[in-house]
Amino acid sequence: MKNLLLIFSLLFSLLSFSQSESDILFIKSKIENVNAQSKNYKLTVISKTDETEMLHGNEIAVFTDDLHHIKLIRETYLNETGKTVIWDYIENNHAYFILKEYFIYKFPVADKKFNEADFTKTDEGFYLKNDRVIRWMKGTKLITKYPKNAASIENNMIEHIADLVAKFNQQTTK
Description:
The protein is α+β, with helices and mostly antiparallel strands. 34% of the residues lie in helices and 38% in strands. The termini are far apart. About 5% of the residues have low confidence.
């Protein structure tokens, strides 16, 4: 009986693992497809900071296909010590992958030694299915122990995407 229970548990975990891995592979294939097709997408900027505020500016750009479906949103947030670029991969107005790239400049923008090419970069990737994070990566490292506020982070990302989609829809239907 113990052996049967052990075998059942092992099969269940293998099926769960393979389903998760298959979801990740499927998401990666969709990302590759969007990246390959991105040159054909229409670009619409839905938010851009005035050029007088370039030091602390941002830009939100939406990439859509011929049917006006959102495929990708690129968010760029600038500040004196670096920038953050967020790539939101979208299908049916929901994110399935979010990549956050953090660029920290060696010197602040106002410093005479500032060089835009002199930075360190880190990144985080979030694989999502049905508005739930199914894999969280920091660089190439898989995060297996989520922080205590992980549910809040997940909810904030989902709400943020919904807000961006609504803003795009509102701006393009005017």
